[in-house]
Amino acid sequence: MKSNAYRAALLSLVLVLSSLSGCLSADEEEGENEVLGKVMVSTYHVGELVSAVAGDTLDVEIISPSNVPVHDYEPSAGDLIRLQESDLFFYHGLNLEPWVESALDTLGSDAPVSAMTHTMPSGETTLDYESILISDLCELLIEGPFESTTLAMGEDHDDHDDHDDHSDDEDDHDDDHDDHSDDEDDHDDDHDD
Fold first, then answer.
1. CA atoms of 93 and 2, how far apart (whole Å)
2. What's the pTM value of the predicted model, to 2 decimals?
């Protein structure tokens, strides 16, 4: 792997070249935009990123076909030749394209200068997601924002006194039924006569 300083210098070169394209002489004809080089990219998204930075100053080509998932793609012999003939090669990194390292190794010294668009922090080989999530959670718990709710037993408990009234009504209601059954007994007595 090449050093991060080398990658930063490469990216700086692309940015400088793209900014110089705006400083070109106005004497040049509009239709004659000089292409400064050929850049191969691993996916559509990386191609869009490079095109946004470089504009029309670089010829950007996607190495993999759009109908093949980037994880499953394997470069053909023709793809390796196209890659070898390019000036720069940009790819996602983080092992999204498992074929990249072997393809660059196969080309050896004929491989183009390459750079990942997504990399790990310096010195890291894997991310420890659990510790990242825990530290973020702890930070949120310490800093807030919080809503405070205080529950008190004595202050608004008078609103619930009406529950006692309902139980008294039920007792009265039961008494009405008792009286009613007494009335029925009396009523039956009237019919017996």
1. 13
2. 0.48
